[in-house]
């Protein structure tokens, strides 16, 4: 199992995404993923955490430049 599949399986087990097998644009079988309501909430939390970390790093870099 490749790393991407492992990560998607893990996210699905957490309830953050769902998956569904269906035909792709070229009519081959493909697995499609969607965020769940729980997953959207987690994404918002992770994005907010990332924004805080990024802001903190920016402040440190600016202090070193001054």
CATH architecture: Orthogonal Bundle
Total domain units:
1
The fourth-level CATH homologous superfamily is Winged helix-like DNA-binding domain superfamily/Winged helix DNA-binding domain
Helix content: 55-70%
Oligomer: single chain
Strand portion = 15-25%
Beta strand count? 2
Which structural class matches the secondary elements?
A: alpha+beta
Model regions low in confidence, pLDDT < 50 over at least 5 residues? none
| Average of pLDDT | 95
Detailed description of the structure:
The structure is a single chain. This protein is α+β, with helices and mostly antiparallel strands. It has a single domain (3-65), classed as Winged helix-like DNA-binding domain superfamily/Winged helix DNA-binding domain (Arc Repressor Mutant, subunit A, Orthogonal Bundle). It contains two helices and two strands. It has helices spanning 3-14, 37-65; strands at 17-23, 29-35. A two-stranded antiparallel ribbon has the order 1-2. The longest helix is centred in the last third of the chain and has 29 residues, at 37-65. It is elongated. The protein starts with a helix and ends with a helix.
């Amino acid at each position: 199992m490749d790393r991407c599949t492992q990560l998607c399986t893990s996210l699905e087990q957490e309830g953050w995404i769902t998956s569904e097998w269906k035909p792709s644009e070229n009519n081959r079988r493909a697995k499609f993923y969607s965020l769940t309501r729980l997953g959207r909430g987690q994404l918002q939390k992770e994005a907010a955490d990332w924004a805080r970390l990024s802001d903190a790093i920016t402040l440190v870099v600016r202090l070193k430049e001054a």
